[in-house]
Amino acid sequence: MKKEFRVSGMRCTGCEILVKEALQELDGVDAVRVSFADGIVEVGYDPSMISPAAMSAVIEEQGFKVLE
Predict the structure, then answer these.
(1) CB 67 within 8 A of CB 7
(2) pLDDT of residue 54
(3) Beta bridge partners of 41
(4) Coil, strand or helix: which one is 27?
(5) What is the Cβ-side half-sphere exposure of residue 6, based on CA atoms within 13 angstroms?
(6) Which residues pair with residue 6 across a beta bridge?
(7) Distance (Å, rounded) from C-alpha 63 to C-alpha 44?
(8) 62 and 36 in contact (C-beta within 8 Å)?
(9) Distance CA 61, CA 68 (A)
(10) Is 25 in contact with 43 (CB distance < 8 Å)?
(11) Chain segment 4-62, per-residue pLDDT in tens
């Protein structure tokens, strides 16, 4: 499955890398695309292994805000 998160607070490619690396470490995540310019994080994942809420929490742990 794929999930798109709208994220505020990302201001540079360093922010993109921080979010991407944190999500890629999670079991069940198989693809991550991050755009700080668009404020979007797209994640390909296995819903039997991880939930969107868990991925959202990891994004917020990096210092960014996931918008509803």
Answers:
(1) yes
(2) 98
(3) 5, 34
(4) coil
(5) 2
(6) 40, 67
(7) 21
(8) no
(9) 16
(10) no
(11) 999 999 999 999 999 999 999 999 999 999 999 999 999 999 999 999 999 999 999 99
